[in-house]
Amino acid sequence: MTAPETMQLGKAIGAALHDALAEDDRVFLMGEDIGALGGVFRVTDGLQATYGPKRVIDSPLAESAIIGTAIGMAYRGYRPVVEIQFDGFIYPGFDQIVAQVAKLHYRTKGRVRVPMVIRVPYGGDIGSVEHHSESPESYFAHTAGLRVVTAATPQEAYSTLRAAIASDDPVLFFEPKSRYWSKGEVDRSIVRDLDTAEVLVRGRDVTLATYGPVVKTALDAAVAASDEGIEIEVIDLRSISPLDVDTVVASVERTGRLVVAHEAPKESSVSSELVASVVERAFASLQAAPERVTAYDTPYPPSAFEEAYLPSVDRILDAVDRTLGRRSSRTAGDRTPALQGGSR
Amino acid sequence: MSLTVPAPDPALAAGLDEPLTVLHPDGSRHASALLDPQLGDVDEHLLTDLYVDLSILRRIDAEAFALTRQGELLLWPPSQGQEAAQIGSGRALRDTDFVFGSYREHGLAYLRGVDQGEAMRVWKGVQQSGWDPMEHHLATPQIIIGAQSLHATGYAMASTLDGSDDVAVAYFGDGATSEGDVNEAMVFASAFQAPVIFVCQNNQYAISEPVAVQSGFPLALRPTGFGIPALRVDGNDVLAMLAATRIAVERARSGGGPTFIEAMTYRMGPHTSTDDPKRYRDEAEVASWRAKDPIVRLERHLESVGAPIERIREEAKIRCDAVAKELRAAVTAVHVPDERTLFEHVYTTPTKRLERQLAEHDAFVASVEAEDHA
């Protein structure tokens, strides 16, 4: 048993890959620039030197082929961990992911397993150009057969990625790239599942559910709210598909209020699904209409606008206040306070 | 893995002027410096076996097509006309070579010993794959055009990693050569020198689009741009297909990398049982290909070498009748599984979400039944 180490989130992912490669020679990595360069974010730094170019494979630049050939390798018993360099580059591989990876196990009645992990650095707030800051997780959460998970801390990154690699289901592992350099303790002996949300902070007033890079923002919001005597219960959803609705419902049954936050746009998003599920199952517990704090329904804007576009502590607190009836509706002239158990 | 890519070279393609062939439509055997060395084992016995295989495949196809008209099957993509392309190439493989086909490779399923009743489950609409891919080293039908070419390439890459000499084969049609996946598969196959064989059955049509819509020059030239050698073969000549595939297999097994085979053939039937080819091609064209029929030419060849053709025909007929009878019985016996099974195998272990939906479904069904009994 090794002692906990302090490391950056990106390094924790590298450590998980290192340990998985060491433990199981059926695990291999494939992606663009993951070899000598160590990936554009250096997540795979040193792995090709350690495990060689047959297990850490620099691939030609073709996302569909990265996914598709990894399927073929899975047919032969391998456990592929592939990297899509940036969120916005995943679309050429979309067909192989949703039409093949997701459906092979179902199609073959369990005879073919695709224990593939697709690593996707995602999200914004890194001041980059178009296609480098997107949050495409909902496309995949909408597809049966895929697991879609995120990680918010170095520990979560390490343990959840290990669980993803160990899983016999295909997993999309969305890495919050703006948090790659955040530091935390990592205990390599901690084992995590792929199914459950986690209550990070207990609070009696409002449930705030989020995931990935927004977890840190949510925790900051909870601290700020506590200064005003408001207790926010912060939940890291961890898994986007399947969503752990049970944990959120149990929380809302205590707090009566729900705010969901994420970097992805609002329409047909994780928050759409979560709010709908909570309303279905805990309608009577709701004391206010659920609120959502998301990106706007525009394409990802130029990075100069990121601050306005992405969820922030202030936007979260604003939403929390509305659920508590401490603010009016955002609609100008509409002074109707939130109704008991109702909607606007 | 090696990333050495040979320079593109049009000279990599053989058979561009005239597809490689040894068996002409009149049944006469012709010399081929390239193919003959692969055909040393061809004797009356092998020719008879091939004839029986081709005949059985044609019969399976005819029976299945008829079953769509009788409402026993939903849909069928006919293979008539492509028997030699499938049986000739398939016969060049060993059992542990993994085949990734499209949805028209009924000949490969037959060669790999797939139970016809299992194979027909897809076309009956009760299952999305018929057989166990691992048992037969044969992926189940791939409906996304060209997607399987990547799976074959990855399988071949894995075979190399294992130090095995198993090869992988991707079957696809002329239309698939326009898909990104097929081109990306050739990029990867070439870059990693993967032991994969691309068998393109150029049956002249992608549903209604003639091959000229896909390409103004021979499809066999495409792989050469990726540094992959190509053999353009008379796909209605079972011996030429056998020989060409043996060349490709030998290259792959010995570390020589991928090969592309363009089998020049013709889809005699419609795209599927719901298609109407009269809208896009004329009878004269079909007749010209009927004159190049793969089974007729083999029959003529058997006759020309003095084989007891009447006895061989009779033997083939007995085998075909038996297969047809078995197929009909198997299709009729297929029943629709319990609808609750639609929730199975989405994941390797059921998620809470799906368990919940199954429970909701059960409750709804029970409530309807309770009302019916009230």
Automatic annotation (TrEMBL), chain A:
CDD domains xrefs: TPP_PYR_E1-PDHc-beta_like
Entries under InterPro entries matching the protein: THDP-binding, Transketo_C/PFOR_II, Transketolase-like_Pyr-bd, Transketolase_C
UniProt keyword annotation of Oxidoreductase present: yes
Pfam families recorded: Transket_pyr (PF02779), Transketolase_C (PF02780)
Domain Transketolase-like pyrimidine-binding: 7-182
Keyword Oxidoreductase found: yes
Alphabetically ordered keywords of this record: Oxidoreductase, Thiamine pyrophosphate
Region (Disordered): 325-344
Transmembrane intervals: none
Cofactor(s) needed by this chain: thiamine diphosphate
The protein, known as: Transketolase C-terminal domain-containing protein
TrEMBL record, chain B:
Entry EC number(s): 1.2.4.4
Species name: Agrococcus versicolor
Domain of life of the organism encoding this protein: Bacteria
Entry function: The branched-chain alpha-keto dehydrogenase complex catalyzes the overall conversion of alpha-keto acids to acyl-CoA and CO(2). It contains multiple copies of three enzymatic components: branched-chain alpha-keto acid decarboxylase (E1), lipoamide acyltransferase (E2) and lipoamide dehydrogenase (E3).
Protein known as: 2-oxoisovalerate dehydrogenase subunit alpha
Chemical reaction(s) catalysed: N(6)-[(R)-lipoyl]-L-lysyl-[protein] + 3-methyl-2-oxobutanoate + H(+) = N(6)-[(R)-S(8)-2-methylpropanoyldihydrolipoyl]-L-lysyl-[protein] + CO2
Domain Dehydrogenase E1 component: 57-318
Transmembrane segments: none
InterPro entries named among the record's database cross-references: Alpha-ketoacid_DH_E1_comp, DH_E1, THDP-binding
Family assignment from sequence similarity: Belongs to the BCKDHA family.
Keywords (A to Z) from UniProt: Oxidoreductase, Thiamine pyrophosphate
Names of the cofactor(s): thiamine diphosphate
CDD domains the record matches: TPP_E1_PDC_ADC_BCADC
